[in-house]
Amino acid sequence: MQQASKDAFALADLLGWRRFHIVGHSMTGMVVQWMALKDWEMPARNQRLKSIVAITPVSADGYPATAEDEAFFNAVIFNQDMSRKAFAGLTGARLSPRWGQVKTRRHLETGSREALADYLKMWSQSDISREIAGAQIQTPLLVIGGRQDLPGFQEDHLQKTFGRWYPNVTFRYITDAGHYPMQETPVYLTSIIEGFLVKNSELVGQAN
Hints:
Layout: H1 2-15, E1 20-25, H2 28-40, E2 49-55, H3 67-76, H4 80-90, H5 97-110, H6 113-125, H7 129-135, E3 141-146, H8 155-165, E4 169-174, H9 181-184, H10 186-199
Parallel strand pairs: 1-2, 2-3, 3-4
C-alpha cells in the first residue's frame, strides 16, 4: 500500500501534475485511501488531490475475510479453476463462461505470483482505519459499489466503514454490476465518474 502510493505520487511528479484526481478499484481502493491520508496530512497549500473515486473498494480495515475466505483467495493465485470460480463469485455468477475464461487467462498471463501474494496480504491483513478515522479527511470521495458483488463490497459494509470514516463521502450503487463495473457497465460507470470529477474540479481561470 505504501509503495504503490509512493509510486503513484512519483508518477504524478514525473507528469508535472500539481493537482489531480485519483481513481482506485478493489484492492487499490486501499491505496487511494492511503494516498488521501498522506495528502491530507500536508499543509493545505501543498495538498494535491482534488477528489478520490473508489470503485468496489476494500475498506480501510481490510476485506472482512474468514479463515476459509483467505484459504480460497490464496488458492486462486495461479490456479485456473479456482480463478474462474472467483471471477464468477465476484460478478454474481451472472456473466458468460467465456468472460470468466478471458479474465482467468489475463490473470495468469499478466500477474506475478509474488506480487499477487503481496497484494492479497495487503487487502486481507492491513488495517489503516484508525488513522483514516482520526484524520477526518475532507477531500471529496465517491464510493461506487456493485450490487452483484461479494458481501464485503456490498452497500451495508461500505456504509458502515466509509460512511463512518469520511465526512465528505458520496455513494453510488450499480444494480447490474458486480466487482468489475468498468467491464460490466462501462458507459454508466464512466458517466458517474465524469459527473463527480467535473463537480470537484476547479473552474478554469478561477483565482487562487
